[in-house]
Amino acid sequence: MTKTLTDLTGTYTLDAGHSRLGFVARHAMVTKVRGAFNEFDGTATIDGDDLSKSSVNVTIQSASIDTRNEQRDGHLRSNDFLSPEEYPTITFVSTGVTKTGDASVEITGDLTVRGVTKSVTIPFDYEGAAVDPFGNERVGFEGSVVISRKEFGVEWNAPLEAGGVLVSDKVTLEFEISAIKNA
Question: Where does the signal peptide begin and end (predicted)?
Fold first, then answer.
């Protein structure tokens, strides 16, 4: 039997080992660079009877940024970008959950990057539920949203000779979530 959103009532813990909190930005106006944050934790409380009473809280360690390029990652950890010494975490705290379809929701919340908080709405698709070989009830959700990094005080850039800039202002945040229901 396939579980629907209304069957998911409970509190869940994000499984960082089986989830991805990633991002995509344009580089030199010609290609995309992808990366992810390797250290994060979070919880989701789902009220299947009234999804508007659900909530999500996520904390990301900003120094865990990983684009598979040590030099670039070092620059992203500098004051030009995330400045993890001063701003060690990126947080998301939901302010509302709205059901948008049989297997979809929009989660609105406060995203804080470099001490700047902005409201964002992220559409998510429910990918399903399963009991893993260890007896854990798991749920999966995927979503993405485009943000302006400048709105969060991440303004560094370099002009290109042919026009344009080295790093796009628009960044797509990508969420591939596996969460385990708490006992």
Answer: none
Q: State which amino acid sits at residue 119.
A: S
119-145 burial, b at 16+ Cβ within 10 Å, e below that, comes to eeebebebeebeeeeeebbbbbbebbb
User: Where residue 45 sits, what CATH number does that domain have?
Assistant: 2.40.128.110
pTM, 2 dp: 0.93
φ, ψ for residue 48, nearest 5 deg: -65, -25
Distances (CA, A) of 20 to 95, 139, 175: 22, 14, 6
Host domain of residue 19: 5-181
Number of domains in the chain: 1
Spatial distance between the Cα atoms of 24 and 167, rounded to a whole number of angstroms = 11
List pLDDT tens digits, range 105-129: 999 999 999 999 999 999 999 999 9
Count other Cβ atoms within 10 Å, centred on residue 93.
15
Instruction: Give the count of alpha carbons within 13 A of 14, CB side only.
Output: 22
% the chain with pLDDT above 90:
84
Average pLDDT over residues 16-42: 94
Measure CA of the first residue to CA of the last residue in the chain; give whole Å: 21
